[in-house]
Amino acid sequence: MSAGKRFLITSLIVMVLMSIEYAILPNHVIIKALALGSTSMLVVNVMNRLYPSKEKTK
Q1: Do 40 and 14 form a contact (C-beta atoms < 8 A)?
Q2: Residue 6 CB partners (closer than 8 Å, separation 6+)
Q3: Are 5 and 53 in contact (CB under 8 A)?
Q4: DSSP letters spanning the chain
Q5: How many CB atoms lie within 10 A of CB 10?
Q6: Number of other residues whose CB lies within 10 A of the CB of residue 23
Q7: CB atoms within 10 A of CB 13
Q8: How far is CA 46 from the centre of its chain?
């Protein structure tokens, strides 16, 4: 999968999850920041495991 497709899919998933979390979570900045940050890292890790990059550096 090309880098552009990976970026597009990852950003779309993150935006959908963030909008859901933003509406559900209470109105505390720290709670929302932690939840949104951890969601972003989780989605990126999942995408990296599902679609590993083909180029390997030694």
Answers
A1: yes
A2: 47, 51
A3: no
A4: --HHHHHHHHHHHHHHHHHHHHHHS-S-HHHHHHHHHHHHHHHHHHHHHHS--S----
A5: 17
A6: 7
A7: 17
A8: 8
Contact 47, 10 (CB under 8 A): yes
Please tell me the predicted confidence (pLDDT) of residue 57.
60
Six-digit token pair at 43?
């989605």
Q: Which residues contact 39 (CB under 8 A, 6 or more apart)?
A: 14, 17, 18, 21
In angstroms, the CA 48 to CA 33 distance is: 23
pTM of the model: 0.63
| Residue whose C-alpha is closest to residue 43's, from 31, 55, 35 | 35
Q: For 6-46, write each residue's pLDDT tens digit.
A: 888 888 888 888 888 778 877 777 877 888 888 888 888 88
pLDDT at 58: 59
